[in-house]
């Protein structure tokens, strides 16, 4: 009995670590927006969102654990060149291009805007000053490793959960209003739209990077057996998945019932900030602001540090410190375009790279079945790339008529899932070729 309790305690600790890694400020802003826009179709849309925001990250963690904890090792199964290019794109996406600037914008939208006088938010100065001060602190913490970040991490997860739980319970006991009407693509294809909106959490991409953190944690516990590592990772992933599901469903409900009280808004940061004020008054804003600021600091330091370490390893002649400074300055600049712009700019890129990550991840889980045959990876990823590339173009309103006419015959093309069938066919053809060549 004692051994069983110790096993559960150790595995639960790893699960909570993984949950803490996933739960950043970015995860807080998308479910409320989905809740508002999905309206009466909230359940269908949320199921799609949970698949890409919870289910697939869980599979990604397992895939990377089986591959030895390193994303580049996993991507090298396609080719070493692909491994470097794809891994670099993933790091930049969850780093200075989108995820890190998003932490600066969320800090401003939730932590600063609710306390500014009316009319001042239309001026560029408040956001600029906030971003400079925010990233100056991030740079200091990342250059000078400090126990502060560890301490923030230890109190962050329970604090965020407590705030979300308070908001969720209050929204159920005394709802702000009824669900509004679905808008946009949620009126026609709520499941597919929720599925694609789950890309914005970037949790699948993050999971591919977090694998090495979990592996190091398990080795620190004295666990070196690969089978035990994978089993523990699966258990930890289930714990993290349950936690994320609770967060997403709660925040989705808050957004879904908020429109009567706060009106229709264009980003989840505003929705959750105004909902906190509607539910708990000014005190709600203060508590939410402090918690989100801590979350943003912790997330930004971790992501910038990981990026600087990876690219320093890739280009050893350029120092870690140099990469860190460049990425921090770049993130500061991107932050000033605003949260809505960052989100809308990230979606085309995520439409291009997310399907590649998902296909790579799923194939790696069945790697033993086809003995790591390179041709299977290549023939599955090539058609995936050509379809997802145009999904990104389409999101940017770039239309290529011949390209589009060819892709329109694909099942699920209108839902940005046209890559699914070509990926499956490519994998099957690759498997047949691999079997023939092996014989």
- Amount of beta strand: under 5%
> Helicity level, as a percent range?
over 70%
The tally of structural domains comes to 2
Give the H and E element order.
Answer: HHHHHHHHHHHHHHHHHHH
CATH architecture label name of the largest domain: Orthogonal Bundle
Averaged pLDDT, please?
A: 86
Count of extended strands: 0
Backbone structural class:
mainly alpha
Oligomer: single chain
CATH class of the largest domain: Mainly Alpha
The largest sheet is: none
The number of distinct helices, counting runs of at least 4 residues, comes to 19
The N- to C-terminal Cα distance equals 51 Å
CATH homologous superfamily caption of the largest domain: Hydantoin permease
Which key terms come to mind for this protein?
439 residues; 19 helices; mainly alpha; 2 domains; 0% strand; Hydantoin permease; globular
